[in-house]
Structure formats: C-alpha cells, structure tokens
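To: structure subgroup
Subject: Chain for Friday's discussion

All,

I'm putting the inputs and outputs inline so they're searchable in the archive.
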Amino acid sequence: MNSRQRRGIILLTLSIFLAFAAFVGVLSVVSDVESKVGPEVAAYELSKDVDAYAALDESDVTKVTMPKRWLSANAVTDPEEIAGKIAVNPLKKGSLLQTDMMAERPELKDGEQEIAIMIDAATGVAGKITPGATVNIYATFKDKKDNELSRLLVNNARVIDVGKLTAITKEGENERRESEAVPITFALDTTDTHRVSFAESFAVNVRLALVAPGSDAVIPDGERDYTLNGDR
C-alpha cells in the first residue's frame, strides 16, 4: 500500500468518525429539545393576590401547562388539592401554587357549630388573629341607666376562619359612622353560639383578646364581669 492509499484510508476513517460524532450530537440535541418541550402537564398559578390564612378555591388560580421537568415535586397539578385549604402566607399573583403554600382549614369538633360575626378592625384584630388561634370574646353592654358592663362571653374560643376587611356603616341614635370590620368564624358549642349571637345584635362593642398559643387557662366566674363602679 503506497502513501497515497494510506492517506485515503486515514481520511475515510476520519470522515466516518466525524459523521458518527455529528450524528451523536444531533441525537443529543433532539433528545434535549424533546425533554424541554414535553411531555407537558397541568399546573396552577395564582390569578390574584391572596391574603395569608384566606380560604383558597379554584377561582383563585388559573390552569397552565408546562414541561413536567420544570415542575417541582410539590407543585399542585390537581384542582381538588385546593379544596378546603387556606394560604399559610400572603401569596402573589402569578406564583405557581405549591402544596407547601397551603394548609388544611381547621375543622369542627363533635358538638361544635360555626358562627361568623363581624369584628371591628379597631378592636384588636390587627391581622394577628388567624385560623386555629384561640381568643377570649368580650362584649360591652349598657343597662337602662346607661351604666356599662364588660363581660367575658366565651373563654378560649377557637377561630376557624378569618375573612377579608370589609367597609361597614354603624348607625347610632344621633350619628352614622363609617368603619371597617373583619368577619371572624368561630367553632363554639350551642350555649356560646347563643351568647355571641346575642352580643353581636345588642352589645355596644364586641372585642377579641388573643390567647397565648398552648394556653388554655380558664377564667373564673368571679372575674368575667367588670364595671367601672366595681373597680373604684
């Protein structure tokens, strides 16, 4: 075999190798492109801002599709996962919804009822009362002689839902006042439900006092009523 033939064989071998390398490169690019664009799966992103501890439903999200490889393991891919959940933190519009952004809504126990009342935003709610919190419910009443009495209505009431700030109008005998209130839903037994319902209708004010987490101290009967005259 002369030198020209050897050069020909070397060039042919090199051409085959380069062709094979190019083929492998094309297959790699095609495989990478396919992995980026498919297969696609459904996911859900927030269609609006959601406040912390607000209840979530399908109206809060929009269905989108994207490559499966881009989704985290805890991304929400089924709308049924949203049912009965609340946001654990403030959620921003456009964020991809994930399971660690949600928590189960507190449930009623045996013998409990749900009751929701409007609580004036100026009476200590201030964004600190959240589902699962424990509060004491106080009400202030006036008797026929205009003497005021503050009474503890419910000791250690359990909050199961907190609504959105709402504008309300309060009308008194000689005045009309605009204010803001928050609907708070409690889990109460029948007797406490009656107390709270009565207070919402007839009390001058209904106030909430947040109880420290883990505390279930019972306030004795002798400390549940207060009058200014009795404190003098």
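Points worth raising on Friday:
Residues 113-231 form one domain.
The chain has a mean pLDDT of 81.

D.
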